[in-house]
Specification:
This protein is mostly helical and 349 residues long. It is 61% helix and 4% strand. It has a two-stranded antiparallel sheet with strand order 1-2. Keywords: Membrane, Transmembrane, Transmembrane helix.
Length: 349
C-alpha cells in the first residue's frame, strides 16, 4: 500500500510538471517578454512587413536610392569618360557643408538602425519581440547597417578609392547585402502562400538581379553598363515593394474575385501568410496574370526612367574638345584675322 501511494503521488507530480512545461516551455519566446502576446501569439511587432506601410516606406527608400545612384553614375561617366570611369557603391552629397558629404551613408545607417529597433522592440511597452519573421527582417537591415558602417569608416580613413583593398571590400559588402536579402526571402519562416507568395517570388527575381549586378561591379568597376543595371535594379526593387503594398494591402486595388485577409480573420498562422485570398481557382489565376503584367510594366517604367537619365543633356555641362597644337613655325590664323607666328617653347629644366 505504501508503494502504491508513492506511485500515485509521483504520477500527480509528473502531471503537474507536464502542465507547467506546456504552459511555459512551449510558449513562443517573444511572449515571455511581451505581455501583449498573452492572447495574440501571432501578432507582429512594430511596423511589420506584412502591412501597407511596411512595404511602401522601404520601397520608397529603395526607389529614391536607385534614382540617386543612376543620376550620379551617369554624371560620373560624362565627366570622366569611358577610360576614367569607376563605379561606386555610394556617392557624395553636393553641399558646402563638409559633414553633409556622407549624407547617403548617414541616412542608410540611421534607417537600418531604426528599422531594427522597430522590428525587435515593442515600442508602447518597451519589450523585446523576438518573432522569427521579425528577426529575419531585422537581420536584413543588420547587413545594410554593417555595409554603411564599413563604407563610412573607409571614407573617413581616406581609403575609399582603394579598389584593390578596402574599396573592394566595400563593394563586396554591398553585394553581400543583396545576397543575405535573397537568402532570407527565399527561406522565410512565413511561407507566403497564394497571390502574396507569387509577388514575393517576383521580388526574389529582382533581388537576384541586384545581387548579380552588384557582384559584377565589384569585378568590373570600369563597366558603365553594369553600373547602370545595378542602379536600375535598386530602383526596380523599390518600385516593386511599393507595388506590392498597393496590390496586397489596399482593399480598393485587390484583384477582382479576391478579398483582403484582415486581422479579424486571422484564426490561424496560415491566415497571416496571405494578405489576399481568392474565392475560385480562376480568380487566383487571373490575379497571378495581373501580377506578372504589373511586374513587366514596372520593369518597362524603370528602363524608361533610366534611359531618360542616361540620354538627357545637361544644360550646364560643357563639352571639351581636344586641341592639337600646330607644328612649329606654322602660321596661325585664317581669313582677315591677323596672322600670328607660333614658335615652339623650350621647357627650362
Amino acid at each position: 500500500m505504501l508503494f502504491l501511494s508513492q506511485l500515485l503521488t509521483m504520477q500527480h507530480y509528473l502531471s503537474q510538471v507536464t502542465t507547467l512545461n506546456q504552459h511555459y516551455l512551449f510558449k513562443p519566446v517573444h511572449c515571455l517578454s511581451s505581455p501583449r502576446c498573452t492572447n495574440q501569439h501571432n501578432r507582429q511587432c512594430g511596423l511589420a512587413m506584412g502591412t501597407f506601410l511596411g512595404h511602401f516606406l522601404p520601397g520608397l527608400a529603395f526607389a529614391i536610392l536607385g534614382v540617386w545612384h543612376t543620376l550620379n553614375t551617369v554624371r560620373d561617366y560624362k565627366l570622366r569618360g569611358a577610360s576614367g570611369f569607376r563605379s561606386a557603391t555610394w556617392f557624395p552629397f553636393p553641399s558646402p557643408l563638409p559633414w553633409l558629404r556622407r549624407l547617403e551613408l548617414y541616412l542608410l545607417l540611421s534607417f537600418s538602425v531604426l528599422a531594427i529597433i522597430d522590428q525587435l522592440v515593442d515600442l508602447p511597452i518597451l519589450a523585446l519581440c523576438l518573432q522569427p519573421d521579425s528577426l529575419e527582417h531585422a537581420t536584413i537591415y543588420l547587413h545594410l547597417a554593417v555595409y554603411a558602417s564599413v563604407a563610412l569608416a573607409a571614407d573617413v580613413s581616406g581609403r575609399r578609392d582603394d579598389a584593390a583593398g578596402v574599396g573592394g571590400v566595400v563593394a563586396a559588402l554591398a553585394a553581400s547585402v543583396f545576397g543575405q536579402e535573397l537568402f532570407l526571402l527565399r527561406f522565410h519562416s512565413a511561407d507566403h502562400a497564394g497571390l502574396e507568395g507569387h509577388y514575393h517570388w517576383l521580388l526574389q527575381l529582382v533581388v537576384a538581379g541586384s545581387l548579380a549586378a552588384t557582384a559584377a561591379t565589384a569585378v568590373l568597376p570600369g563597366s558603365f553598363a553594369v553600373a547602370v543595371v545595378r542602379s536600375a535594379s535598386v530602383l526596380l526593387q523599390g518600385v516593386w515593394f511599393m507595388a506590392m503594398g498597393f496590390a496586397l494591402w489596399v482593399p480598393a486595388l485587390v484583384p477582382s474575385g479576391c478579398h483582403g485577409v484582415g486581422v479579424e480573420e486571422e484564426g490561424s498562422s496560415a491566415a497571416m501568410r496571405s494578405a489576399v485570398a481568392c474565392a475560385t481557382e480562376e480568380a487566383a489565376r487571373r490575379a497571378t496574370v495581373m501580377a506578372n503584367l504589373q511586374f513587366s510594366w514596372a520593369l518597362a517604367a524603370v528602363w524608361v526612367v533610366t534611359a531618360y537619365l542616361c540620354l538627357r543633356v545637361d544644360s550646364g555641362c560643357l563639352e571639351y574638345v581636344q586641341l592639337q597644337a600646330p607644328p612649329s613655325g606654322v602660321l596661325a590664323g585664317d581669313g582677315d584675322t591677323p596672322r600670328k607666328i607660333v614658335f615652339p617653347v623650350e621647357e627650362q629644366v
